[in-house]
Amino acid sequence: MPPELVLTPREMRQADAWTIESGLPGIELMRRAGHAVARAAAEMLTKEARVIVAAGPGQNGGDGFVVATRLAGMGHRVSLGLLGEVGRLAGDAALAAKDWKGAVEPVESLPFAEADLIVDALFGTGLARDLGGAARVAVERMNASGIPVLAVDLPSGLDGETGRVRGLAVKARRTVTFAARKPCHVLMPGRAFCGEVEVADIGIPRVTLEATGGRLFANAPPLWLDRLPKPGLDFHKYDRGHTLVVSGGATRTGAARLAARAALRIGSGLVTVASPPEALGVNAAHLTAIMLRGCDGPEGLHQILQDARLNALVLGPALGAHSGTRAMVAVAAHARRSLVLDADALTSFEGLATELHQVFRHAPAVLTPHDGEFRRLFKGHPDILDPESKIERAHRAAAYTGAVVVLKGPDTVIAAPDGRAAINENGTPYLGTAGSGDTLCGIVAGLMAQGLPAFEAACAGVWIHAEAGASFGPGLIAEDLAELIPGVLRTLLR
Ligand SMILES: NC(=O)C1=CN([C@@H]2O[C@H](COP(=O)(O)OP(=O)(O)OC[C@H]3O[C@@H](n4cnc5c(N)ncnc54)[C@H](O)[C@@H]3O)[C@@H](O)[C@H]2O)[C@@H](O)CC1
Ligand SMILES: [K+]
Question: Per UniProt, where does K(+) bind (predicted)?
Fold first, then answer.
């Protein structure tokens, strides 16, 4: 199965246009789209149910006319209300409206609360500004009715590209979109408005979708499963990489051990904790399969990295946000090992992101900030912080630093400097627990130690981490996560 593509509204419009140019008329695309929605509606309805279609002034409204015509033909009692005037409908929407033999009411007079199902065809990917006036009132009334809503393409009021709510948005039970999901179906808060999302095939070939988009994916196993390491019979532990995790001081050692254990569980052949001299005792008391070495500051790290077998490195958790940590990042970047930077390794560069400009372009590196760390790191870089799209922010940070950027959250975005990006959606709020991020670092580094490229390691790591958390649910603590990895791997590698 190929990885699932996600297309921006602009890419989707291009794919529509190319498909139409290649000989499939736009009205045919619209009919297929409307019929797919009508099929979904029929599944939600009993015979002769009452359906209210709210149609907007653009092509999303056109889809609404097709749905209304189809459902009426199936014997349902259908009312259609239009935002605007029929005479002002253009293009395929005007053609679709001609097929509708029922009345066209003003959207203002639709009795939503009397319906068994509401079909929301007000706006799709063409929403251009915040909802106001009659559009806003219609959405307010739809939401207040408590009647299930089936959204055409996307719930009206969502920005297709960013998943942002433009003033107000329809809360849908189910959404039928066409050819591919758009970012609003995957990113928060949009995802929470869509209900169950179905992608209907309306005849736009995958090659066309790949040609216009092709760089944004839903993060799931098809994106990286074939890269996941499976040790061969003749494999030696030294073939599976050696991950080094740098520990904080005597009272701040737990984060490194969490990362180290996760690296070991994900399959890194060897894992070593590099510990400041004063913390060797406490680390030694808690480590068994994981090795331990003394490491005194940046110079100590430099010495340790003379050993070329140490091929992946975690730096950041509990190191302290100070110049010593920055110096360690410099040593690590110079040593050109696969690198995962988190927490203090990022925060120590608060307002100093220029020092990281293109620093990571020579070796695989992954930065794993949450929103707060991201804002601190790129303070003074409005070009990176200001885009409304989370995908765009992550992209720009990746292009700037030369590293893969994992911008964490309920909709973690993983962006590579080469322009690829993936959105993750299998997480659980229970992952928001102390030490969860340290575990993620260890998983990603452990995958890189085994030879996965940075983008695939980050995508696989984020997904496996989330899957492990979701499989446990309530009561999850970070210590559980590494122990849940084997179960996730077993299912993946079956
Ligand atoms: N041939 C195609 O391109 C296809 C398009 N399809 C449908 O077409 C939709 C996109 O159509 P459009 O580009 O016409 O966009 P929309 O139908 O989403 O909306 C655009 C219309 O809404 C108006 N508008 C935008 N923001 C507004 C606001 N805040 N308040 C009031 N009016 C506002 C615009 O002036 C324009 O008339 C897709 O979402 C999909 O449902 C499908 O039929 C599949 C094929
Ligand atoms: K809609």
Answer: 60, 120, 156
